[in-house]
Write a structure and sequence with these properties.
2 domains
Length: 227
């Protein structure tokens, strides 16, 4: 199987990695991750689905690393379609972790390959089910309303990163808002529904969770993304 060359982390890729993974890796890390885009998917350090050996840690950027691996493999491209790394990589970003792993394993010949449309539809369905399973928020106090657009805010917590993982509705909302800029809720809903999520109840739960985590603040009738 022909695979494109490994991708070395550059500054633009570091920025993309930080945005996707909700991290803050520093510039000096550029030359410290030589295995990037070449994840060993049968190792726990690269794939948390694999049982660990003792206290083996999981790489903090294992997901985006595998997105780049998928791009090298041409995941999401039609048969006989010209190879396009960027197109494949951007398609891989749309997949849940489960479907991304399935697509990579299929390209390696371990599973039957699915049509791109099926992979994306299954990912959306899976995220809808997981977002709908968020705990009810009706009994919690309403978010505090502020009258300014201060762009500073709390540092992301590990819990916040876990709740709003790449591919989830929460992460999608954060990725499409500009820090410090108030955005009407109706506009956010249009983005979310255009992506394929159709439950307004789930949407309200997700927004409330983002506010509770300190990632958004309510500014009158709009929402402002925190840094």
């Amino acid at each position: 199987m022909k695979v494109a060359d490994c991708v070395k982390i550059s500054l633009p890729i570091l920025e993309e990695t930080n945005q996707f993974s909700r991290l803050n890796l520093k510039q000096e890390r550029v030359n410290q991750i030589p295995c990037f885009s070449n994840a060993v998917i049968d190792s726990h350090s690269c794939n948390p689905d694999i049982p660990p050996e003792a206290d083996e840690p999981v790489c903090a950027i294992h997901w985006i690393c595998k997105v780049y691996l998928a791009g090298r493999l041409g995941v999401g491209l039609k048969p006989n379609e010209p190879y396009d790394f960027e197109k494949s990589k951007e398609f891989a970003k749309k997949l849940t972790y489960e479907k991304l792993m399935e697509a990579i394993r299929a390209k390696r010949g371990e599973l039957l390959e699915q049509e791109p449309e099926v992979l994306e539809a299954d990912s959306i369905k899976g995220e809808q089910e997981q977002e709908a399973a968020l705990k009810p928020v009706e009994d919690k106090p309403a978010p505090k309303v502020v009258k300014n657009q201060d762009a500073t805010g709390p540092v992301l917590t590990k819990d916040s990163i876990g709740q709003h993982r790449p591919g989830s509705q929460g992460h999608f909302i954060l990725a499409n808002l500009v820090v410090g800029t108030a955005t009407p809720k109706d506009n956010i809903w249009k983005l979310v529904s255009a992506k394929g999520w159709s439950s307004e109840k789930t949407f309200e739960k997700t927004l409330t969770k983002l506010v509770e985590d300190g990632l958004l603040v309510v500014v009158e009738n709009t929402l402002t993304r925190k840094s």
